[in-house]
Structures are given as structure tokens and as C-alpha cells.
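WARN no homologs supplied; continuing
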Amino acid sequence: MTRIYAILAAALAITAVAVTWMMTRQNGEGDKYAQCRSSAVAGGSSKIGGPFTLVDETGKTVTEKDVIDQPTLLYFGYTFCPDVCPLDNARNAEAIEILEGRGKMVKPVFISIDPERDTPEVMAEFTDILHPRMLGLTGTAEQVKAASMAYRTYFKKQDAAADDKYYLVDHSTFSYLSFPEEGFIEFFNRDVTPEQMADRIQCFVDAR
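OK structure emitted
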């Protein structure tokens, strides 16, 4: 009987340790970026990000390893977007400028979800206006869809006539911070100001 009690006590102790470990993980202990986070991802941050192959502004095929070679801020949209995309990318560019002033270099990236119109040349012209270091990426419809799925973004072309060159595309509007070797780190909503974004990104960069 004593042996049974000992076994039960040991089992309870192991269970208690496991529960404590799970609770501390959920509370952010063991996460070096816990103090920087202000958002949560359903299923965990590992569900966002991953491999992709796209085409850059020069027509060169690149992968996520080529693109995310330093702290990188990604945004999915399209150049014909009438309002949201220019505003969001301008906000991102301003945050990047603030970070540069603090000695923190972060790469701004704009990924098109409208490859039919967004050629490498169009992407280059658009990004050059917003920030000299902003990288524009496009690709085939399949490549763009795969990149979008990796970051769990949404986009859908609105119904329009086959010859309508002025169609709109519905899409999600998050910006994603990713680090080399680590992948996705954090996302930002549209209501975040350039200053708030810069402060939060700096927190993550400093904690690397």
C-alpha cells in the first residue's frame, strides 16, 4: 500500500510540474519577446509565415530567405488600391524612418496580391515613391496565393467584367514583422500609429 501511495504521489508531482510549465508558457515565460507583445494569434504564432517564392522589382526570383535577411515588415496589398494600401504603406514607411533615426534598420516590403496588373516595373515605381528601401514583390498567381496563405492573409478580386482594368480587390490589412531564422514575430493592425509601430518594433529588435 505504501508503494502505491508513493507512486501516486510521484505521478501527482509530475503532473503539477507539467501544469506549472504549461501555465508559465501561456503567461509568456520563456518567450524572450513577451514584454513586447500586444497581440495573440489563434493556434500560436508558428501558424503564420513560412516559405514563399516571388519575383522582386528587378524581375529576379527570390525566396523568403532572400527577402527576410534582416528584421522585415511585410504588407500584402496592391498598387491600384484606391485608399487603404497607400495609407498603410505610408504609415509603415514612416515607422521605418523613425526606427532609422534611432539606429534600427528594418526592411519594408510590399507584396502584391494583384499580379495581373502589378508587374515588377509597376511595383518598383510604387515602392520608390513611398520609401527608397521598400522592396516590392509580385509573381505568378500561384506564387502570390502561396505567400498569402503562408501568412494567413485574405484577398479576393471583386466581380467585374472580363475587360475591366479598374477592378478592386478585397484584402486583409495587417502588417507582419518577421526576423531571419525566426520567421513571423508580430502583426500590426491598421489603427497603430507610426510612432506606436516604431516603439513596438524596436522592442522586438532590441530583444533579439
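The beta strands are 53-56, 61-63, 72-77, 107-112, 135-138, 155-157, 169-171, 175-179, 183-188.
OK
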